[in-house]
Design brief:
CATH architecture of the largest domain in chain A: 2-Layer Sandwich
Oligomer: homodimer
CATH class of the largest domain in chain A: Alpha Beta
Distance between the termini of chain A: 9 Å
CATH superfamily of the largest domain in chain A: Dihydrodipicolinate Reductase, domain 2
Number of helices of chain A: 14
Structural class of chain A: alpha/beta
Helix content of chain A: 25-40%
Radius of gyration of chain A: 21 Å
Largest interface: A-B, 57 and 57 residues
Strand content of chain A: 15-25%
Chain lengths: ~425, ~425
Amino acid sequence: MVYREGRKLCVGFVGYGHRGVAQLSALLSMPDVQVVAVCDFYQDRADCAGAAVAEKSGKKPFVTTDYREILAMPDVEAVVIVTSWQTHARIAVAAMKAGKHVGMEVSGASSLEECWHLVRTAEDTGRTCMMLENCCYGKVEMQILNMVKKGLFGELVHCQGGYQHDLRSEIGRGDKERHYRQDNFISRNGEVYPTHELGPIAKLLDINRGNRMLTLTSMASKAVGLHEWLKVNRPGEALSETRINQADIVTTMIKCANGETICLLHDCSLPRPYSRGGRVQGTKGIWMEDNASMYIEGLSPLSEREWEHGAWEPLANHPEFEHPLWKEYAEFGVRGEHDGMDYLVMRAFIESVQNGTTAPIDVYDTASWMAITCLSEASIAMGSMPVAIPDFTDGEWVRRDPLTPSCYALDDVYEDLYGKE
Amino acid sequence: MVYREGRKLCVGFVGYGHRGVAQLSALLSMPDVQVVAVCDFYQDRADCAGAAVAEKSGKKPFVTTDYREILAMPDVEAVVIVTSWQTHARIAVAAMKAGKHVGMEVSGASSLEECWHLVRTAEDTGRTCMMLENCCYGKVEMQILNMVKKGLFGELVHCQGGYQHDLRSEIGRGDKERHYRQDNFISRNGEVYPTHELGPIAKLLDINRGNRMLTLTSMASKAVGLHEWLKVNRPGEALSETRINQADIVTTMIKCANGETICLLHDCSLPRPYSRGGRVQGTKGIWMEDNASMYIEGLSPLSEREWEHGAWEPLANHPEFEHPLWKEYAEFGVRGEHDGMDYLVMRAFIESVQNGTTAPIDVYDTASWMAITCLSEASIAMGSMPVAIPDFTDGEWVRRDPLTPSCYALDDVYEDLYGKE
């Protein structure tokens, strides 16, 4: 059920950049959530966050530029972290050590140790550490999840996805001192933003619950797109002469314990329409995002050209396969940014804290998804050498139940738990 | 110009399986070609080939089950090889040594030495060795080639393609003893059929003429699709209990000397619509086959959602970018199998022999494209280790002219040579 009114939850909010505006707004739309403290490194942003809370709730929250002040507040039970990529983990660790549950925006890790630090701290403190991967709750992603769990694709074999978003004008903005993505593109070279596509795929493949990611290899193209754009659009600025390390296209292949392969694409500095490039294939069928189509053997039509066998049909032909959560969400009223998925992932975090249930994206998911970034950097630096992906569950993945009876479950128990109400 | 009547060319034809029927038919439709000898390992097929020639030309050709008898015929100037994958190279080498020019069907190599053997023999004998990669002459592939050479995509960065064809019912046929693809799927595991997508991509990237493929890494999924199909469709037959080595999905990443990346997919044992999965990206735009769309900066429309930037538009919106060869071909009359491209590639071979010009797909192209197969097998066997791709030009690629003034040129000299006639 979407939105089950729960006990009042006091939340601290850290990070009020562009993304923070949307996420704070999602929290403020929930009657059972009270944002009692807000923080940003920059005073002006912190003040803006405070004003946003006061305007919406009528209560002025505690406002600070030092997140540790929020962690010291006894009534704060959960912290939502929407800061720069590099700071998520250290703030999350500090928050868990202070006894707070953590909902953390998406990012990739800088080191494996950073991922292990999250895992060990969550284990030691018993706190939740959930990556707020909104795309796990995308309408199409959830329809595919539903179809996979119903067996429509048969045994899964291969999945693809990408973060394919022309960010040249965003990365090329002049306000460098507040722009962490720009810093990352100048200095790093890897799959720096894997989770929008990998999160939903990992849930399809039961990663960390009966399956795991074993190894990956990454390859980087040249880096020319951003530089070419800067020369035209930022003439005379230092940035237009700055060397860009981040490849225009990074391709990453991942092998899973149960034999599935995953192919990821990072594609952010060339002109293109937006796409997460989803593709799921099993022994019974295929779905592709880029033509919004599927072919399920025995269900979809055959091609008129016999040698082609199957024919694509629009996914939209099959509203009967929509995920039950999204059917309820439509009745409840889709809200918030990114076509409604921001609200759902935030609500999943809030209700898991309220009810003390396992988060649908737990610390093992969070750590293993983030680890792809630093591992891809290592692979590229070593000429696309394969590198091992750690088992952050310390072997528990072989017997962890793929069914997690949680609110907003990202598996096939959703209907069993809530569908019959 | 499509079809420039040339001097009479006597051709020997080797291999009359399913593919041979189509290719012989293409040859027999050319008034300046005389098929004087035909061969197949199986007598019944050889006889069929002889009958086909006699019926079409009125002249009964020499018919044999031993191709060496054809190589001994002085009047045979060129040999077309349409046999099983594993036999192409050895027959081609023998043919060149016998002074014949070779047009050879597509395949992947079993060893690098096999590729070098082709190269050294072609160099030593001065004979043509052209892979008849029909997809280089596909209508859409040639439109993309034309657009790339006109600079519409800017500097190229990344290309993708695949051989994505549900072949379960073909591979799972019972007539094992004549079915080389089945043997390959049972025994091998790699990118066994790379050239339909790699050929056109290599031409876009000037491979072996100013650029080259440096290294690759391949990853194999589990192999379950074919086995599952056989259990249902061939119950009780030994084949349904045979272990299949070939992965359902093989993904291969290739790095080029000028920094471009190529991603290939082999996908032949899962249910799906046919697609060669083409994708080309540069600093000015993108094309994708699967949605039949493109986005060229400054030409294509923008998305209504500002953060998405570009919007897809159908490639069909731009007939002005069709390749001039295909415009002429439409007037001449599109003919033969595979939407007309079979005829074009065969004609390209014939006219290059008639005129003594460089073949548009030369022995270096042939060898480097075929080499992907055995290199991908090696990479997979070693856990996706990167492996080096040989430079079959012995360093000449750095100064070989990307413009090859040949008939049916696969570069941008086509219009200069023929467009003004």
